[in-house]
């Protein structure tokens, strides 16, 4: 059975106690650190002081990154599929001659 850990993460001056799998700890701590860095950046760049506004901006930034990676992956997959089809056609034409 997986080992459970109890950790506390601080985000936007609030502490969040979590019970997690041991394998999740590093990822969650890095995510919290990235959120804190982004909060600081938004507060400095946009003079936003309301934590809810800053957190909404962070959520939008992270969500848009995920969506863009999905779009980019789909474009790469389509490109690879086209190239593989081209190679397959060349091989078929070679084998049929």
Describe it for me?
With about 100 residues, the protein is an alpha+beta fold. It is about 70% helix and about 15% strand. The protein is built from two helices and two strands. A two-stranded antiparallel ribbon has the order 1-2. A hairpin with a 2-residue loop joins strand 1 and strand 2. Helix 1 crosses helix 2 (about 50-95). The longest helix is centred in the last third of the chain and has 46 residues, at about 50-95. The protein is elongated. The termini are far apart.
Mean pLDDT reading: 93
Structural class: alpha+beta
Strand % is 15-25%
Taking the alpha carbons of the first and last residues, their distance comes to 59 Å
Q: How many alpha or pi helices?
A: 2
Order of helices and strands: EEHH
Major sheet: 2 strands, antiparallel
Percentage of residues assigned to helices: over 70%
Strand order of the largest sheet: 1-2
Give the CA-based shape.
elongated
Gyration radius, in Å: 23 Å
| Low confidence ranges | none
Total strands: the figure is: 2
